[in-house]
Design brief:
Helix content is 6%, strand content 56%. With 357 residues, it is mainly β. The chain has a 16-stranded antiparallel beta barrel with strand order 1-2-3-4-5-6-7-8-9-10-11-12-13-14-15-18. A two-stranded antiparallel sheet has the order 16-17. The radius of gyration is 23 Å and the shape is globular.
């Protein structure tokens, strides 16, 4: 596309039919015209804001929740994507809002969630850049999740994205094989050159009711889990079962091991999900979790964490999602801070409004 002349831009901005010296300048195309002229190009995004209330003085074991009592602009995101089924393409997702502080410490209100180039050739797809993780049942996008808060597994055990390369090969609907190499096991270790991560994954949908994904990550010396250097292995499994048109279930399992030289520490996490459509606009969701940290790899001392969440999602209009959530976290040993004391329990209530376009 040729550069648009400054005079034409000024004409459009001030509503003029013409500008001296540039009466023949072409009109500035709007976004719809650009999309129509480029089949396969899409621009999507969302804005999500929430209100949170905790019965503790600080927030513990949460990926994105930052305020104990208040309103937050969580995310404002836009994705520009051109990913044809054959040939070259690219996708980039920019993220603003307080949640972006987890993606770019140098720019607390803005970050690049993912950005990668892709080349597809038949059953083979190759990608390079900042790639979304293969692990976990939940994602950064709050519109795609059934609960407002992220799981313990999402926060404590799973990466968010990877800077590297990846290739996948679709054997069929029931099996796609994936392999890749990236910097470290999570974004926090992307800058270390001695912490390369290798990933091996398999995913598929054997039937209309059942889908699955499994991935194994292995990283060399890094400081991701508990700030302790050592080789790390993570096995992640996600399974989804659709029982009826209204009822579905999900399972997420994470098994982590870390070699610290003098021994191996482990942390295991399990999450169960259930979703029931009360109507075309109203969905009731639940999540229950259990995280075993007997070696203190995650929390610093031996502990067992449990979490139960109930959420209600309402879509009163197209693209608009309103959500409410009640959650309780428990730990065997005091883990949550409330004033000058520590406690084994944390309760929270959240509201969220999200609009996707």
């Amino acid at each position: 596309m040729k550069p648009i002349k400054l005079a034409a831009c000024l004409g459009v901005a001030f509503g003029l039919n013409g500008v001296a010296g540039a009466t023949d300048a072409p009109a500035v195309p709007d976004l719809g015209a650009v999309l129509a002229a480029t089949p396969g190009l899409s621009v999507t995004g969302y804005v999500a804001s929430s209100y949170t209330h905790f019965d503790t003085s600080t927030v513990g074991q949460r990926q994105f929740d930052l305020k104990t009592n208040g309103f937050t602009l969580n995310q404002a995101s836009m994705t520009v994507s051109y990913l044809p089924s054959s040939g070259a393409g690219a996708s980039a997702t920019l993220l603003g809002g307080e949640d972006a502080s987890y993606l770019a410490a140098s720019a607390p209100q803005f970050g690049v969630a993912t950005a990668y180039a892709q080349y597809a050739l038949g059953a083979l797809t190759m990608m390079a850049g900042r790639l979304p993780t293969l692990a976990g049942a939940e994602v950064v996008d709050p519109v795609a999740d059934n609960e407002i808060s992220r799981s313990l597994l999402f926060y404590d055990l799973e990466p968010i994205y990877h800077d590297g390369v990846r290739a996948s090969y679709a054997v069929g609907d029931a099996l796609t094989l994936t392999g890749g190499v990236s910097n470290g096991i999570n974004y926090s270790s992307n800058g270390t050159s001695d912490s390369k991560l290798v990933e091996f994954g398999a995913s598929g949908a054997p039937s209309k009711q059942l889908s699955y994904s499994a991935v194994y990550y292995y990283a060399g010396t890094n400081s991701y889990y508990g700030g302790k250097p050592g080789r790390t292995g993570l096995f992640d499994f996600v399974g989804n079962y659709t029982a009826t048109d209204a009822l579905s279930f999900g399972l997420n399992v994470d098994l982590v091991s870390k070699d610290l030289g003098g021994g191996t520490q482990r942390a295991d996490g399990y999450a169960l999900y259930a979703n029931y459509a009360l109507s075309g606009q109203l969905t009731l969701s639940g999540r229950g979790e259990y995280l075993s940290d007997n070696d203190g790899l995650i929390t610093g001392s031996p502990n067992k964490l449990k979490e139960l969440t109930v959420a209600l999602n309402y879509t009163p209009a197209k693209h608009l999602k309103l959500s409410a959530e009640l959650r309780q976290d428990k730990a065997d040993n005091p883990l949550f801070v409330n004033g000058a004391a520590t406690t084994t329990k944390q309760n929270s209530f959240e509201l969220m409004a999200a609009y996707a376009f």
